[in-house]
Design brief:
Strand content: 5-15%
CATH architecture of the largest domain: 3-Layer(aba) Sandwich
Number of helices: 17
Distance between the termini: 57 Å
Helix content: 55-70%
Bound molecules: adenosine-5'-triphosphate
CATH topology of the largest domain: Rossmann fold
Largest sheet: 5 strands, parallel
CATH class of the largest domain: Alpha Beta
Structural class: alpha/beta
Order of helices and strands: HHEHEHHEHHHEHEHHHHHEHHEEH
Number of strands: 8
Number of domains: 3
CATH superfamily of the largest domain: P-loop containing nucleotide triphosphate hydrolases
């Protein structure tokens, strides 16, 4: 067969299969994690604080470092990307001596995290690729030297910063923040992005005092109304007209608002239910497609949590779930969790870890659970302040998770 007849066959097959299946997704880019809408809604308070501080830094060398924190899917990364793109554009348009470096710390695969971060900052600042073999300290010094000699300012955005802030990162932070001591012109500002600010308890005093002028900006989970509007907007751009009813969008929003308020889950459900409906050759997404999508997503989330934890951590999480279920979904104190853990560990015939080790492992679990967990500190009278914790899910999902983890231990 010659090439042109192969191409003809291909094109005829292509047209046949494309026309056979009715697609529901018109442009999937609007459902991508990377997509940044032109206008970010429901985050006006946060935007105002961020932009005001950045403005102060640009115009009068003032302003604070910023720390954006809050649950998963609350728009932190979206805002961080928006600032990154926006500042770059602003600097070009207004000919400002300003640079921005955006680093997603979760994606750093290098073993030497400090080296990677300094190298990236230097390269973003100077637009020059660094040759290998230059020492970390030297790159660090060159960043300040370059800023002085070129009379520039720099905004460093460290997204998913929990991934480095948890790893004995005091030295990195101290070095990064030290520009206050050595640079009277205050040429660098930081924007940290993380789920929680609990790492602050563990950093040493030098870093704490460097971070004392940091403004903490909280991102709360989205409510029903906000989720519904975000999803409506995405559906309008990504799906063919009339592929999903407003009632069904509201149904997705209501289910998510009840659990996590995570916009990412909402967008994933929208995408997955469109794919499920299309695979059944339907023109519209029905309630059953959405329910199927929820089951897949929930299972995916639970599986990825279980996969990320070792056996001891799974038993600790199981103990938390057991106790929360018997507490009718309410918060669990660490003492209650530990009691439950001792019972469970015995059932699984393992040796118990001491309280301190269980506490440390609980922190890892919190990181893996992300927005699915809520912690707080409450006063318990004479016993002093106590940490309380709960998994954010309704009773049905708590039981589902509990059963699945028990099976996997
Ligand atoms: N206000 C909003 N308008 C439109 N889309 C939004 C909004 N907030 C979040 N999203 C979308 O929801 C998804 C998750 O948001 P984002 O990645 O910003 O969450 P996050 O708070 O950084 O979560 P994590 O802590 O897991 O990193 C993204 O696809 C994002 O585009």
């Amino acid at each position: 067969m010659n090439t042109s007849s192969i191409i003809n066959y291909f094109i005829s097959d292509f047209d046949k299969y494309i026309s056979k299946r009715r697609s529901i997704i018109q442009d999937s880019r609007y459902l991508d994690e990377e997509y940044v809408p032109n206008e970010i809604r429901f985050r006006d308070t946060q935007k105002e604080m961020i932009l005001y501080n950045i403005g102060e830094f640009i115009n009068s060398n003032a302003g604070n470092n910023l720390f954006l924190y809050g649950s998963t899917g609350a728009g932190k990364t979206l805002i961080a990307r928006f600032i990154n793109k926006g500042i770059n554009g602003l600097a070009i348009q207004r000919k400002l001596r300003l640079k921005v470096s955006y680093i997603n710390c979760k994606l750093i695969s290098s073993k030497d995290i400090d080296y990677y971060i300094f190298k990236r900052i230097y390269e973003d600042l100077t637009d020059i690729n660094l040759k290998s073999g230059i020492r970390k300290q030297e790159i660090h010094e060159n960043i300040y030297r370059y800023l002085e000699s070129s009379d520039k300012k720099l905004i460093i955005i460290l997204d998913e910063a929990d991934f480095i802030l948890n790893n004995n990162s005091s030295d990195l932070l101290y070095l990064l923040l030290r520009n206050y001591d050595i640079n009277i012109y205050n040429r660098i500002k930081f924007v940290f992005v993380a789920n929680s600010i609990s790492f602050m308890n563990d950093v040493d005093q030098r870093v704490k005092s460097s971070l004392s002028s940091t403004l903490y900006i909280h991102f709360t989970p989205y409510n029903y109304y906000e989720l519904k509007e975000i999803l409506k907007e995405r559906a309008k751009n990504a799906l063919y007209e009339n592929s999903i009813s407003e009632e069904n969008i509201n149904y997705i929003a209501a289910k998510i608002a009840k659990n996590s308020g995570d916009a990412r889950v909402g967008i994933n459900i929208l995408k997955m239910s469109a794919e499920i409906a299309a695979s059944k050759n339907k023109e519209r997404i029905d309630r059953e497609d959405i329910d199927e999508a929820f089951e897949n997503v929930e299972l995916d989330i639970i599986n990825s949590i279980i996969y990320s934890l070792n056996k001891n951590q799974r038993i600790i999480l199981l103990s938390l779930l057991d106790r929360q279920i018997s507490n009718k979904g309410e918060f669990v104190t660490f003492t209650e969790l530990y009691e439950e853990y001792i019972k469970n560990i015995d059932k699984f015939g393992m040796k118990p870890l001491d309280k301190t080790t269980v506490y440390k492992n609980l922190k890892t679990i919190e990181l893996v659970l992300g927005n699915l967990v809520e912690t707080s500190v409450v006063s318990k009278g004479r016993e002093g302040y106590k940490k309380i914790i709960k998994v954010i899910a309704d009773e049905e999902n708590l039981i589902k998770m509990d059963n699945k983890i028990r099976k996997e231990i």
